[in-house]
Automatic annotation (TrEMBL):
Protein's UniProt name: Histone acetyltransferase Rv0428c-like SH3 domain-containing protein
Pfam family membership, one: SH3_Rv0428c
Alphabetized InterPro entries for the sequence: SH3_Rv0428c (IPR056934)
Chain positions covered by the region annotation Disordered: 64-87
UniProt domain Histone acetyltransferase Rv0428c-like SH3: residue ranges: 11-63
Domain of life: Bacteria
Length: 87
């Protein structure tokens, strides 16, 4: 069962939504920052900077998700560098 657990009040938060699309696959997911929810349209910026607009009528499910984890480089870890212990 799909549930929409986000509202326009979640603007600015990181969200995951499932939406209806035309084509072979009837549903697809979008994860990113909810930039706006106006005029029955959600605008989401994904990790790669793409802007995705989703009509409210195509929204099947949605929820807030935690911020994206910070990636650490393998080179920094190999050298023993951490944010708390920079060299």
């Amino acid at each position: 069962m799909y549930v929409v657990r986000i509202t326009p009040a979640d603007t600015g938060a990181r969200v995951s939504i499932r939406r209806r699309v035309a084509g072979l696959l009837p549903l697809t997911d979008v994860v990113g920052q909810l930039l706006s929810w106006t005029d029955r349209c959600l605008t989401i910026r994904t990790r790669d900077g793409s802007i995705v607009k989703v009509a409210e009528t195509d929204l099947v499910a949605g929820r807030r998700v935690p911020p994206q984890p910070v990636r650490r480089s393998a080179a920094g870890q190999a050298a023993g560098q951490t944010e708390a212990n920079p060299q």
